[in-house]
Request: fold
Amino acid sequence: MSTTTSASASTKPRVAFWDNARFVAVALVVVDHAIQRLVGSSNHALIVYLFIYAFHVPAFAVISGYFSKSGPLSNDQIKKVLTHIVLPYVVMEVIWSIIQWQVEGKASFNPSVARWTLWFLLALGIFRLVLPYLALVKWPLFWAVVMSVGVGYLQNVDTTFSLSRAFGILPFFLLGWQLRRWGIMDRWMTAVRGVWWMRAGAVAVMATWAGILIAFIHTWRSTDLRHWFFYDRSYHELGNDSWTAGLIRLGLIVLAVLLVGAFFVLMPRSHTWLSGFGEATMYIYLLHTFVLYPIRQSNILHGHKSDLWLFGMILVAIAISIGPVRRIFRPLVEPRAEWLFQALPETVPPSAPASSVAPSPAPTKTE
Reply:
């Protein structure tokens, strides 16, 4: 998923590589949500679920960080934060409150606790707030990792405003921001030599992770590994009160970085049939839950061990991901909210020289 955090980002030509990565990442999210009810009874479903969940949210955060800027926000950029993050979040929270009231009898509207996938919108807002401060200090990526590992020891930091998850995946957002500063992705997208060797290495990384999951699936089930990938609970809630719990999260961060790197290396760098779908990933991310909700609530997936159910739900997830939803649901996901804003004068960019703001006073003659 990608939200435009920069005014200039929307005027630049789209890069096929990033559209391909966005679409595949959001499709993996839909797949994981589609098969979630199967993981309790099917080891194969749990393997697929863990394989994907280890890196798809970190990949989202890296992409979001790559297209973020650490400088002060202009008026247009602030408007985009409100219309692309805040308003869709409020609208979707209201809709979900109504649905849960009608279906589950839960009559509550609490925007401080995000429902289902909406937590990522709050996380994006938090990322945008803390990035200018982290950009001022030395080794910002290091401090992001410290915060991610350290927040797990704090039981009073929970899912309120998605703080636990936001700080948990903050290193991946900072990594994306750093990748742009380092120019690594630009060099990769124009690389000619060594591409096939790197892709072979990426396949080996993915295959190794899949092999580890298959070989030790009973261990991962008994230790509830999937909850560690959510980054939403303290170590105490995860059943580990030892000081070494932070090392587990650190290890999972390193694992995610390796998998995200492999994921990017395997993405097509040129325009493909995937690229067009990559322009509407926010729609897929926010709206697929409405399609899956009746299936999840019906309990139709509980107790099935057959791989036919797993394969069928993967196909359903892919069909949802390529559905034509953008034109119909634009008012909900990208609302036209000019009525909300007052006319403001143009601000002078901070980098403008003083002479462009006001003329210098003439020097006075001294005797």
Remarks:
- Confidence is low (pLDDT under 50) at residues 4-10, 352-367.
- The chain has 16 helices and no strands.
